[in-house]
What does this fold into?
Amino acid sequence: MAASNEAITEEIEALQAIMLDEVMVLQGDGGVPTGVEVVVVPATAQNVKEQHVRVTLVISLPPEYPDASPSITLRNPRGVDDDVLEKIHQESRQRCEEYLGCPVIYELIEVVRDNLTANNTPSCPCAICLYHFTDTDTFTKTQCFHYFHSYCLGRYIANCEEEAAAEEEQPQPAWMAREKKQLMCPVCRDPIQKELNSEDLLLAAPPEEEENTMEFRADDPTLVALQQKMAQLYLKQKEKGGIIDLEEEKNKFLLSSNRVDFYEGFGGSLEEEASLSLPDSPVEAPWRTSRPLPLPLPLPGEAAAPPSPDTRGTRHREATAGSPGGTQTMGVMGGTGLATEEAEATVGAGGGVPDGEERTGPPGSSLNTKSTALQV
Amino acid sequence: MAAGLPRRIIKETQRLMAEPVPGISAVPDETNARYFHVVVAGPEGSPFEGGVFKLELFLPEEYPMSAPKVRFMTKIYHPNIDKLGRICLDILKDKWSPALQIRTVLLSIQALLSAPNPDDPLANDVAELWKVNESEAIRIAREWTRTYAMGN
Ligand SMILES: [Zn+2]
Ligand SMILES: [Zn+2]
It folds into this structure.
């Protein structure tokens, strides 16, 4: 045991000599080294700017080390894809086996570094557009080591700036005054470097993959079946009075203008449907007949739901496993119906401009103002 | 209408279909790919257990720079959801980040059902009862779930 401790100390000292202060030694009771922690970056001849990925390698040494293999944890990976992490894990385990009984810490660091050097482009997708970085894409690294297409980050920063500007123009009571917003990383909310500005970033070309937009398959059978299933649920709940009746609530309560703000989104983009809708009834739309598929979520009938006195359970099973084409699908078009009503309300009032009656709240009050919640 | 739909939305939709979140189902409308029909199952152990809640979700033009707009359509007795089904959730407002997704939003809503927060209310009367008489509030929430949110 004592001999083993000495060997470990020696190995770690050698390591520190090579890697200087990059190695952090983890110590247990009485100063016994129990492991090391190293932030590993790709080998780029000390050119920090060209290090696009990194990971923290934690090597825990069991008391029996080196006769027992250390365990390895990879923490805070930045720009490293899961596949690469898995590869590092595999190679590390292999290396540990080969070096059983011998010092292996430096070897492990090399495994990680080699993999990072071989994959020194951020291989995780851009969190803003969800697409990977191609060789020709321009990307930007934040100081927290998160990557974005420069164009995507530019759009984000421009949007933040616009919002901040809009907020400043709004008269707000003193108690609502906010401190000036620091730009935050979209992923980890760490502050991002002030040098980054939207004008420069937006000079970059949009991400390549995103450019060629493909057709959206709205008639996918699985999708249609799900839509149909949801429409059925909506109808059933509506029959039982379980669906919020916006019109009724609107008449019952005094609403602040934020309701209109809120539904502008629904309404504005549903203009086309609004023109198709009937004036004062929910949109009746024949649902496409297709084979019903079970919802991917456990419906109460399947789960441990309280059994009802009638044959609900049975009906449910029929609904999910029903005979192909056996469902008469004439129903209210779930959400779109209501949303369309809203669309009419807003569009009808002149392109989304709320009418006087509804504008009871302060102008520009929005959803994020909790105090404008519904007055009862 | 499909033309010009950002790939991000397509990608999110594909993933929602291929790897649905347990207890959550989100499907785009057949005529508007930015409008989603959503069903969230009441989380186990919550007063909403056994219920299936219909929501509508809309991705505004600026998405993902702006948050999706989400609303409960099924009636629900919850201190952070008002009578119109509007949800009080920071990530839908000032804590929105384009790194969040439809998936994360719906997960957060599911979490909100598990952990109602009467100290940050949207539905004031509900929150009030939740604070002064929690067991009664939970009883009502259960009753509403049974009355309005059954899936069969
Ligand atoms: Zn991007
Ligand atoms: Zn970050």
Q: What stands out?
A: Residues A 142, 144, 146, 185, 187-188, 190 surround zinc ion (ligand 2) (CB under 6 Å).
